[in-house]
Design a protein that fits this description.
Largest sheet: 9 strands, antiparallel
Number of helices: 15
Oligomer: single chain
Strand content: 15-25%
Shape: flat
Helix content: 25-40%
Strand order of the largest sheet: 8-7-11-5-4-12-6-10-9
Structural class: alpha+beta
Length: 535
């Protein structure tokens, strides 16, 4: 279960809160308007509305301080109402009507989005996947509200005995308080001004331009129907100075509701962390690395690396995810190409793909049209030019699935030329590895890696530098340099080093304390109000 609906109980019980707290209603509405105004200029409307207006949702996402007062005030109104329901086993009719109306609206919006997504697919329009995701979210929320409505109705009509009415309401409260996606708990939703990612105006314009290019690539070459790695470029081709990488670089989790420039300074490592070693370090005057070091240059804010990754990395250093599993697939030749059979899917970590192997290479790229048939008999087709990569004397290319959720039974490929010798289903870790940098573990707010530096140089992490980051090289705290006006860099000597990086800003600890305090205050209010009622 996900936490996109957390806090909905606060909204559903609002009619009872307003009825019992006439004086507080005006104050709460004033606070709500204030929080609403804070939305503008900070985030997009939907994101700000959910994270600042719905208390439970914001608290479990570690809220920023400007919406804590709203959440705490709602507790003072919510606790007595919940206690009344638990003690009397009664619920106001207004709650049923409000829940029913909200459910109808949400299901209606979800249905409209589903119809729009269908029409988009028919017309061949782009961005249908985003509309489909929104429609699915609305429909899931509608189902949750339907379940809640059923519970409220049984309580209101007294179709079950008192003890079961209390158990049902208590169950909803427990779900609302404790149901969350644990992997997202450490996320710090903090907004930083655009100017903080660089003091240089030209760099800011460069970043804006690259983001626009990324958006065009995403819409134009969305071969997987997915926000991950949509350009089809591999790691060596997308890592450039001040360029937005498309795997593990920006926050795709919040992309639908956040302006990219506002999340750029606090990126979430969701896919492959892009980390590379460079001994080609220059200053704005293009002083060579050796000369720069000999001058004693070690100013963290004046470190630059060359723009092209391929110019920095030697032949023995290539960036590839670790293969965790590879299963042979049945490959048969057809009149116009070949077919691959077997149970094929992206897997739990969504890294699965079909890898085709050739013993010899006739051309560098191969044009193929791939028709995927899923387990329900539905067909989806992708096509394009696929680049061959050499590995251990053989050549391969990867074909990604058009959907990450479906199980495919067959992939029929139409092509000219030599058919591949065999095919495998490949699963990889969402980590970058090579002969120099090996990322052993990463999470939302930490990353661990081993670096075998061939020379003295810098390990560059494509995450924006922030004062909340700390780094330890071989167990010793190390200053984090600023690479290319933005990224994090760690100076290392020649040899093997273990690096641990952690993101622990003040907001992280404040948010954690507020999240715990939220639950504590809720139960304290319930107990105190219950004792008063008993007296």
């Amino acid at each position: 279960m996900t936490n996109y609906y957390m806090g909905i109980i606060t909204v559903l019980l609002m009619p009872m809160i307003f009825a019992r707290k006439q004086k507080n209603k005006k104050v709460y509405l004033s606070l709500a308007v204030a929080a609403f105004l804070l939305c503008f200029g900070e985030n997009s409307f939907l994101h700000a509305l959910l994270y600042r207006f719905v208390p439970m949702y914001s608290s479990f996402r570690f809220p920023t301080l400007n919406r804590i007062f709203v959440a705490m005030f709602v507790l003072l109104c919510l606790a007595p109402v919940l206690q009344d329901i638990l003690q009397t086993g009664k619920i106001a009719k207004k709650v049923l009507l409000f829940t029913f109306g909200l459910m109808i609206i949400i299901i209606g919006v979800g249905s409209a989005a589903a119809v729009t997504e269908y029409l988009h697919n028919v017309d061949g329009m782009q961005d249908a996947a985003n509309i489909k995701t929104f429609a699915e979210t609305m429909m899931r929320l509608g189902v949750i509200l339907l379940v809640y409505l059923g519970v409220f109705y049984m309580v209101y009509t007294r179709q079950v005995v008192m003890i079961w009415r209390k158990i049902l309401v208590t169950g909803i409260v427990v779900i609302e308080v404790f149901t969350c996606f644990l992997g997202e708990l450490p996320i710090t939703i903090a907004r930083y001004p655009q100017g903080q990612y660089s003091w240089d105006v030209a760099t800011q314009k460069n970043i804006d331009r690259e983001f626009n290019l990324y958006e065009k690539r995403k819409r134009g070459v969305n071969f997987a129907g997915h926000t991950r790695s949509t350009s089809g470029l591999n790691s060596q081709q997308v890592v450039f100075n001040q360029t937005f990488d498309e795997e593990g670089y920006c926050s795709f989790l919040l992309k639908a509701t956040n302006d990219f420039k506002q999340t750029y300074f606090r990126n979430i490592i969701e896919q492959n962390p892009e980390v590379y070693f460079s001994n080609h370090v220059i200053t704005p005057d293009n002083i060579s690395y050796d000369e720069w070091v000999s001058r004693g240059g070690n100013t963290s804010e004046q470190i630059y690396t060359d723009q092209g990754l391929e110019e920095q990395i030697r032949e023995y250093q290539t960036l590839n995810p670790k293969i965790t599993a590879q299963d042979a697939l049945n490959l048969t030749q057809t009149d116009n190409g070949f077919a691959v059979d077997g149970n094929m899917q992206a897997g739990e970590n969504q890294t699965g793909r079909v890898r085709l192997y050739w013993d010899t290479k006739e051309t560098d790229t191969i044009s193929m049209a791939v028709d995927f048939m899923d387990s329900e008999g539905n067909h989806q087709t992708v096509s394009g030019d696929y680049t061959l990569t050499e590995q251990d004397g053989r050549f391969y290319t990867d074909i990604y699935f058009p959907s990450l959720d479906k199980v495919y039974q067959q992939a029929s490929v139409t092509m000219d030329g030599q058919v591949p010798a065999n095919a495998e289903l490949i699963q990889t870790e969402r980590m970058t590895t090579d002969n120099i940098v090996d990322v052993s573990w990463f999470g939302f707010n930490s990353i661990q890696m081993t670096v075998d530096a061939p020379t003295e140089g810098y390990v560059t992490v494509l995450q924006a530098k922030h004062k909340g980051w700390t780094a330890y090289v071989d167990g010793e705290k190390t200053e984090i340099a600023t690479i290319n006006n933005c990224f994090m860099g760690l100076h290392v000597s020649k040899g093997t080093h273990t690096i641990v990086m952690k993101f622990r800003p003040k907001e992280w600890f404040i948010g954690g304390a507020i999240s715990a305090l939220y639950v504590i205050v809720l139960f304290v209010m319930l107990i105190r109000y219950g004792r008063k009622k008993c007296k």
